[in-house]
Amino acid sequence: MRLLKFTPDGNLSLTEFSSHQLPQYAILSHTWGKDGDEVTSQEIPVDPRNKAGYAKIEFCGKRAAEDGLEYFWVDTCCIDKTSSAELQEAIGPYVSMLHEITGIAISALQGGDLLSFSVPERLTWAETRQTKREEDEAYPLFGIFDVRMSLDYGEGKTTAFERLQEEICKHAGKRHRDEVSLIEQFYFTKIDERLTSLTAAQGKTCRWFLTTAEYISWNDTDQRQDHGGFLWIKGHPGTGKSTLMKLLFEEKKLNIKHDPSRIILSFFFLARGTIEEKSITGLYRSLLHQLFAKQVDLRETLEWMTNDGAKSVQRNGWSEETLKQTMVHAIKKLGSWSLTIFVDALDECDTTQTANMVAFFEELCDLAEDSQVRLQVCFSSRHYPTVIIQKGIEITLEHQVGHKDDIEQYVKYKLKIGQSKPAESPRSELLENSSSIFLWVVLVLDILNSEYPDSSGSIKEIGDRLKEIPQKLTDLFELILIRDEDNLDRLQICPMVILFAARPMKPEELYFAVQFKLDKKCSGIWDVVDMDLDQMKYYVRSSSKGLAEVNRNEASEVQFIHESVRDSLLGSHEHLRNCCLAQVNVSALLDDSTLPNIINATQLRETISPFLGYPLHNILHHANIAQQNNINQGDFLHHFPVERWTVLSSFLEKYEVRRYRGVTVGLLYILAEKNLADLIQIHPGRGSAFLIEDQRYGCPLFAALATSSNEAVEAMLEAQLADTPTSSQLRIFWGQSCHDGHPWLKQKRQTEVIPRAKTIFERGFVFSQTKSVFHYIKENRVEVLIAFYLINVADVDFREINDTTPLSWAVDQGYDSAVKVLLEKEGVNVVSRDHGFSTPLLIAVTKRNRAIVSSLLGKKGVDVNATNFGGRSPLCQAIEQEDAGIVKLFLPRQDIRVNYRTPSGIAPLDFAARTGDTCMVKLLLARTDIDINWANRLGKPALDYAAQGGHWDIVQLLRLRTEHEDPIAPKISDKEEFA
């Protein structure tokens, strides 16, 4: 510990003592001043008397001496504030002391979020507080509870607390409504459809897992130290992992049916599902939705968010980071509740996110252990992606004896060939060939039973057929597709449509997609009498040779029987694109020139053509994917029926505001709005991103920004670079901006990059035809967009508000890179004047932006001596602002007028002498052509300004220079002589 004392000669000194050698000392209680006013520990060895904070140190030392104390302590200079360790060591004991005295939680004293503490707990913090006026026991609590109420001294303590409680309840009611709104945003459609559509384990299959040593260990709290609460089930595709996970989840739920202290959550990833069904954010949203539904009290954990944070979620939805933080706070609050989480099919989510997600769950398990909360996590996945966990139990399903027994029992039940000794051979061969892949066994038995119904084949025939069936699952899928000639025409189309559909199709949608390929005269009108829904379901199964089915959930969507079918199939989006195009072209629902109102359009959609919505919404999507796969779509775009598609799309739109205005919509605008980046890259008009159309979002770029079509924004901006050299400032700026992702969503402020994912360009944005594109780009304040726009305008010196050119505006805003881009553009006027008569150079100097000053000085035609409305040159302005960095940029130039006089006769040297900036005077005196003797109209040279301000070091510099130039000049030795 350091202590202060005054030495006999009156100087301050710091002495360091160990804890057992401390003498008695005084402590100064004071209010900190400005940072620059306080004396720091580093300044004690130097004379600190010129600092404003020295006076109170001197007072403390004198008062300590009066009380017979040699040493005293002042926090500002006895603690080295540059050392975080020393700061913590100094502050820590005081926090602990305050905690002991007041009972206030240490985390609250250290600046933690007060909303994370319950109302009763916060009220206890003031229980022992003693105040002069009884009402003051309640009034200081306003800030702790974030409430507002009037002061009414005389009402008494009881009434004051009653009013405080009322305000707290009102505030809590609002918080509750906000919480409900936030919780509602966890939900998404199909939140549990994967689980409900999974086939349950048949008979006693999978139940063996409940008695394995690994599963028992995972459930044993005494063994938690060994595995950390983690269980990971791995297996090859088709082994039955999802079926097992469903059984484990339902078994757990059954066991805790009458125990409310135990919570069970689950999430089953689905690669062919919606974005929420296959994403990490969907996982977290689903788990939190279930958690808060089962334990309402845990909703208090949402109080960790600030009001602004909550509003951001309500406006923009939950981000992955806010979801993770909410999970962390919820785990901390579990207390005596136990939590078990099942997550199936990790391989069906984005594999680039899997490792981070697994690491986060490991952190949750560690957090639960520290918080003495029981948390169990069970994962299942294929053997990839490869993610190593620090602690946990891993089980390979195909290696388990119980799994093999399940397959054996299934074969005995399904393969009806008797129990004779010869029958053992095909059964054994089937089991051996299966490699413990349950799906392979199911499909092979289907083949055998269909080819030899009712055991019509001999054991030898069945054995021979079994030898012909491939052992690899992917080869088996191929065999199923080609083994007979039934429905070959439909088979060529059906799997492809299911595979490449932008979303899962309903059976009637799939039916019409196939029919449009097979029957050129198909009208797309559904005759329920001719083909009912049950017939369509049979149609799906027969057309896919049993590899697809209609799921049993409420949505009734077509899906492959297993994800591995999807993995095995190859195909093209070309066919789906053509199917969609056929429907668009043949639809006779409405005349191109007529558009029914919203109500009539809804009725037509629901009753006439169930397949119309899919082709209109996805024809361009399939073309985009085909282009991605190097199938050129240039001819398709050239002949695309834009007007017809526009009318039909507006016909399908549920909301009037989303309809297109007329039929004259540019194809680039449509591609931008739909985020079809690959088609944009080959569109001949891809460089027209800023072209204004009479549509909701104005120009294609704004349509992409408003719909968060980030890839489309990138494609259009990169199209602007086509004719620019690789060394151009625009390419350099673009390369730097792309380093951290989509640059148009970010803005640099000093050294911090601030996300701007949604600014003025949101779904509610509507372009006003009375405003320009530049108006909105300026308002959005994203520099990279500004640069791209300005490099593409025909007249780079156009003037808008305040009679300011784009260059002057960019300089004023401090957009360094945009200025560099503009300066490369031919014809840019670097000496234009704004409404204040300032040139871009003068503006840059006034804004103290050295980078822009340097860029402007490198441009041919810049006037370094142009003056502003007050007659100051850029050099004078920089000197008066004491900006030596900018002055150094000017002085090496031969065209700079270092002896320029303002209308009042003040020269650059006069400004430097008057401000007392010795460094600046030295810089100017280094110029051999500087005139130090010229006097202004009042007869005052620079020497007078320096003397008048008491800047004696500058006086001496000027006198030395004068003597060097004029040896006869009288010598001045001191201040008095000069005066």
How is this structure best described in words?
The protein is an alpha/beta fold. It has 6 domains: 2-82, no CATH class; 113-184; 193-397, P-loop containing nucleotide triphosphate hydrolases (Rossmann fold, 3-Layer(aba) Sandwich); 401-482; 484-649, no CATH class; 666-793, no CATH class. Helices cover 48% and strands 6% of the residues. It is built from 48 helices and 13 strands. The strands form 5 sheets. Strands 6-7-8-5-9 form a 5-stranded parallel sheet, with helices on both faces. A two-stranded antiparallel ribbon has the order 1-2. Strands 3-4 form a two-stranded parallel ribbon. Helix 17 (424-434) packs parallel to helix 19 and helix 45 packs parallel to helix 47. It is globular and about 125 Å long. The relative contact order is 0.03. Mean pLDDT is 80; it is low at 746-758 and 967-979. It holds the Pfam family NPHP3_N. Residues 25-92 form the Heterokaryon incompatibility domain. Keywords: Repeat. Residues 205-382 form the Nephrocystin 3-like N-terminal domain.
And the CATH topology of the largest domain? Answer: Rossmann fold
- What is the radius of gyration? 39 Å
Beta-strand content estimate: 5-15%
Shape: globular
Unreliable spans are: 746-758, 967-979
Structural class determined from secondary elements: alpha/beta
End-to-end separation: 51 Å
Count all strands and give the number. Answer: 13
- Please identify the top-level CATH class of the largest domain: Alpha Beta
**Tally of alpha and pi helices:** 48
Number of domains: 6
